[in-house]
Amino acid sequence: MAQSNKHKMAAFRKMMPEAALQIPFGDIVRTLEQLFGAALYPAFDPDASLPGPLDGCRDTAFLKTAKTVGINVRTIRHFWNIIPYTFTLPEAQNAIHILPIWEPGVVSSLYGPSSWNVNPEFFSPELAAHFPELNTVEKQLKAVVNILHLMGKAVGMDVVPHTDRFSEMAVAHPQFFEWLQRRDDKIIAHEASLFRDVQTLVFQHLLQTGSAVPGSPLPHSADDLFEKIPESGRLRLLFGEKYDYWGRLFRRKAIVRLLYDHGYETVPATMGPPYRGIEVDPRPEAKVVDAEGLVWRDYRITRPQKFSRVFGPLARYKLYESKNGNRDWELDFDRPNTAAWAYVCEHYRQIQAEFGFDFMRGDMSHVQMRPGGVPAERDAYYDLLGAVKQTVLREKPWFGYFAESFLAPPGEMAYGDECDHLEAAFADSTLGDLQSETVGTDKFMRDFSQYRKWLETRKFAPNFTIFTADKDDPRFDAFYLKGNEIRYFIALFLTDMPSYMGLGFECRDPHPQPAANECYSKYYVFQMPNDPKTTSGAYRWGQNEILYAKLARQKILSDAISAEVRDAKAEWLVPPDPGGHHKVIAWTQASGPAYLFVANLDTTHGHTVKMAVPEDLRWQLLFSTEREQTEDILLPSGGVATEKLLPGEGLVFRRI
Fold first, then answer.
1. CATH no. of 568-655
2. Alpha-carbon distance 489 to 164, whole Å?
3. 3-state secondary structure string, 292-309?
4. Tell me, what DSSP letter sits at residue 383?
5. CATH code for the domain defined by 3-158+337-563
6. CATH 2.60.40.1180: which residues of the chain?
7. Which residues, including other chains, have CB under 8 Å from residue 565's CB and lie 6 or more apart?
8. Cα four-point dihedral sign 165, 170, 175, 176
9. pLDDT tens digits, residue range 473-502?
10. What's the pLDDT tens digit per position in 392-438?
């Protein structure tokens, strides 16, 4: 990179994200031109697919060391703003995870897609004005992925194993979902064959209302509609043309009202053992009246365990047939609903091919519903998320799988051992749960040590996760009152371990008391009017300039040295303490050590660290996360070196 471009990018690293998003559109494009020259122009061609940093790779090893940043597009308004935000990231943060991109359903949850169409709220009128060929939200997403590829970033999509409870998918394919029939606060039927009743109702509705596209011939029977007409034709008949947003919504609401009047609903998605066996929650607060005047009820597990949850707005795909017609809510894992598997896998294969995504983030990867745990031998129908990965791998051998799994103890969030499940599902890396603990506690250190052990012994790599969109709400404020600098330091410089950071961490204000809802990115995953979680305006970026300035120094250092240490296996001088008591860690590179890193995860007390440095090498202090001016400190060559660290401080020594 030319020296002038290096200075320009250093300026971006120092720029608060909110300020970067306010840079005029033309200035962003001119910066891209300076960086990439003529190679930039094909990126704006919606028919072009620019190769990403993984093109040509023959495996998915990239995700085992990737430094991923998650972006909820709602917080930055539209896809184009991913580009100026990415300018603020160092080269080492080399993967961008875009939270779900599809049209949302109930409560506008990004994780409750109502169709396979890209969410129109992510469209940028300004991008379309400057590049008229980018006149749809799909074309704009394609251009953004192209530019991210030019910037050296891998781009990930969410794979969601469920939909909105009355999604276009569920209405157009009732056989791919489970159904129940409710009357007030009682489930009166939940047999496996209910989907046929739903098909009949939808077909009769179509005959009465006519095709959503005038002039289209109607099918002669429900079987014709749901078995002989391809999905694209079925969707046009039932809902209308793709870009007729309000028309499709109106027609879908009419079908929802019809099914509601007959008591039919999709069986809601569940989490945590025992997964199966639900009933209506009779509490008054579990009743909701929507804007259409329809009364909905929440559900609960009849025999709940620690992590049992029911997600009323979501419907999981029906992946297995039921035993005894679902009389006892039991699944027959030897009888997969193969058509549903093929349907989901093929759609995600098409999405990857259309937009050029490099990896997938699997939502709710911790779900393992077999009471006996992970089977000794698993077939192609063991796990849907793993099946999606395997489907795409046939065409893109680098397509990796980042799992949303929290590495809970066996039997808590999944039946059996979660690590065994991740391996059986072909996961390459997993989120983990370090973000759910205050940095430096004994538990944090024990978990960190265990994650390192799994990194060495398992087929998947746990992430050093520092912040996620679903942890950015007032319940978790205490995790981020201090220690953010050292979290980022480890996530950035521990090069043989993947890390994950959600947008907004780098400038998040400390909240000793809960702040306004608009300050939390979690509340932009959904939109809930007349609710304590309601937001009334745009996402408010943190104004923590002190934190951001400290992290910006780390970013600039990372840009300067990342080429020398990228993906290097760590040699521990002071490893994470498995007992959790010692808070200082130190490491260098196992081969050709050039830099030595020391981190004090105790954010309250300073510590003296003793470490056996590599023989015949001399080290000079290069950088401190807490001190802008470093003294001329040299470590002795060989033997034991002693160094004093401030609370929460990270040090970098350079080999001389």
1. 2.60.40.1180
2. 39
3. CCCEEECEEECCCCCCCE
4. -
5. 3.20.20.80
6. 568-655
7. 493, 495, 589, 594, 595
8. negative
9. 999 999 999 999 999 999 999 999 999 999
10. 999 999 999 999 999 999 999 999 999 999 999 999 999 999 999 99
